[in-house]
Amino acid sequence: MKEVALPLTSQVIASLSAGDEVLLSGVVYTARDRVHRIIFEEIVSAQKKRRKDLSLPFPLAGQTIYYCGPTPTPPGRIIGSAGPTTSSRMDNYTPLLLRYGLKGMIGKGSRNVVVRQAIARYGAVYFVTYGGCGVLLASHIKEAKIVAFPELGPEAVWRLLLVDFPAVVGIDCKGKVFPDGS
Q1: 106, CA 20 to 30 Å: which among 28, 53, 59, 134?
Q2: Closest Cα partner for 169 from 101, 84, 107, 82?
Q3: Side-chain half-sphere of 133: how many Cα atoms within 13 Å?
Q4: Which domains, ranges and CATH numbers included, belong to the chain?
């Protein structure tokens, strides 16, 4: 397994190939459907008004998003169950976020061809992790803090510190897809 430090660099992204098993360590931000829509609408609004300043819950440039909505935190734990959600629900928003600097995504399931092309165009990477293993995955989260939209409950934005978080490169920066390699 390859050890991958977050945030991602262009060199690290270029070194990854579809199908590589990785252990991710570093900071990620959680974002699901509603947060993606909020970010997307903020970018579109800024573009229409020709504003350069963006009011985002975290900086997109160079960051990795984990498509996850953790369950409530049990006593004595850092976070509740933290498994991935289905990534394709974010496909309509992803190309624009990649254009604005997002470099990595972690989730489960396949992505559409437009997202795959955008990943290649913007030099990003999509990691898949194991569905149904939320408690196991949570054991690889060493710090967790809500940083935006607490009113959204499980869809709030969390800042997570991962250590040796297991994943597989699902789509590499060349647009190749695991498992079929196309």
Answers
A1: 53
A2: 107
A3: 13
A4: 2-171 (3.20.130.10)
